[in-house]
Structures are given as structure tokens and as C-alpha cells.
Amino acid sequence: MKGCLKPEAAKAKSDSGNFLSDIISISDFTRAYIEKALDEAGRMEKASRESKAKMLVNTIVASLFFEPSTRTRLSFETAAQNLGARVIGFADAGATSTQKGESLSDTIHMVERYADIIVMRHFIEGAARRAAEVSRVPVINAGDGSNQHPSQTLVDLYTIRKSFGKIDGIRIVMAGDLKYGRTVHSLMYALSRFSGVTVYLVSPESLRMPRHIIEDTKATLRIHETSNLEKFLPEADILYATRIQKERFPDEIEYRKVKNAYIVTPQVLAKGKRGLKVMHPLPRVNEVSPEVDETGAALYFEQAGNGIPVREALLFLMLAGKMKGGSA
Ligand code: CP
Predict the structure, then answer these.
(1) Do 69 and 141 fall into the same domain?
(2) Is the pTM of this model over 0.85?
(3) How does pLDDT run across 45-98, given as a tens digit for each residue?
(4) 282 is in an annotated binding site
(5) Number of folded domains that form the chain
(6) What number of other Cβ atoms are within 10 A of residue 260's Cβ?
(7) Are residues 94 and 169 located together in one domain of the fold?
């Protein structure tokens, strides 16, 4: 589809200077891009509300969510408003002309005329890449099916760096739905940009991490696989729990077999190393018991809160180069 871009469209997209013009896959990020985003997020978190309020004034952010979301949509929209941008969009795809049969490409061709950047979640894997190919304004993938969720991964990395002071050398258990979980897919690729990271993959046999992701990352990650949640907890710094995603299963009987495979409780955490932290991209169902919220191990609400500075940073880095006086 790149060949379909008009020359002026291609030019507009290259104006992002020294940052990515679209955020589609975490695989597009070098370590330097990741660190630039995390450093900028750190500055956003420290900056006063007043000092940020005009950073993206006269900018319009389109928020297109074709799949349910609480955190990603609201934190992107809050981040945009914190920087002075206006937000257009919908949260219910059922109320759009998609219902009348409009193609994704046509929708993007409309929205690129209304907004300066598009944040999109879609249920089809690869939809964000396709949108970026036809759009002359930047596109951020806010989750495409079971494929990728790159802004969540930057939130995860920011949370890890803030809590542990580093990402290199971290030891992380990823537990639950590793087959369909886009957050853990993206996190594997991102962690492979760092050194000395050990990943313990814990899942039922039917929900193992896709082989191609292990092949793509095994040169730099130390990877262990098991179905036993407690096996590697004494060695891990982080337990990254994920929801078993009912909506991704082609067969509900298969879902029922694994839906309660792992439940993290204070008793489970007691088997872990001192200082073990629990992360989760949320929403949770029952895989982390509410009693964990009251322990010092729970990092997941703070993690969700970090969505604001990280998404402020992404919007700023992608748009500020185009703004008068922008310095991204
Ligand atoms: N973490 C995450 O993507 O949450 P939402 O589905 O609520 O956006």
C-alpha cells in the first residue's frame, strides 16, 4: 500500500524528526527509541500541569476504538488533553459507518482530514499497519487483535525502570494467556532489546507463547517455559500476570478448561523472592486476587497510572516536531 501514498502524504509522515512517524509494532523500536520515549515520559511526569498545557495546542487527536478499552483509550485521551490537544472519536464502533460497510481504508482517509494523529484499536491483527500505510497522518496502534500493543509495552518498561531502576538483567515471570496476549508478545520483543534479561514463561500447554516469538527473541533473552506458576518465583523480580482472554478463543469449551489455570494470591507470592512485584496490564478477572492489592507487591494500579506520562510522551514526540517551535 505504500506505493499508493501521494508524495505529500509521505513527506508529512517523515516530519517526526528523530522519532518514529507511526507506532505500530514494538519491533520497530530500537533500544534508543525506547529510552527516548521513557526519558520523555519521565520529564512529562515531573512537569507541572501548567507547563504542559500548551504543548500540543491546535492539535487534534482522533481516538478510534473498534474494540473495548478503559485504560488505553482514557489515558491517551487524558494525555492529549493534558497537552492542550483536542480529541475526536468514538468508543462504540457500532455507532460508526463501519456498520454500513465502510472499509477501514476509507475511514482512515476521512479521519486523516479531521485530525493530526490517529490512535486506533482494532480487533483485526495487522489493522494498525494497514491504517498507517494509507494514512498521511501518524498512526499509533492501541492494540490490534492478538498481535501487538506497543504503547502498553512502553508503559510496562517505564514501570519496571521506575521500580527497579533498570531493565537490563531483570528476571520476569509472564503467566497466563501467552498465546493470545498481545501485551506479552510486545513485551518479549521489547525486553530482547536489553541485556541479561531472563523470562520465565508460565502457561497451560494450549496457551504457550507462539514459537516464532521465542525464535525471534531467544538470541538475547534467557527463556524458560513451564506450566508451574510457583517454579521460578524464588528467582523472579516481577510476576507479570495476564488475563485468560475468553473473547479470543474460537471454542468456549477450550476456554473453560483453562480459565482458572492460575490465581495469584498472597500465599502464592509468599513463595517468591523478597521484593517480588506483581504487574498486570489489566483488566483482570480472577487471576490476581483482590487481597494482593493490599500487599506491597501490587504494582498494577501504578502501572496503569503510568499510562498518562508515557502516552503524553508519545504524542509529544510524534507531533511536536511538526508544531511551531517544536523540539522533539
Ligand atoms: N491494558 C489495556 O490495554 O487495558 P484496556 O483494554 O482497558 O485499554
Answers:
(1) yes
(2) yes
(3) 999 999 999 999 999 999 999 999 999 999 999 999 999 999 999 878 888 888
(4) yes
(5) 2
(6) 11
(7) no
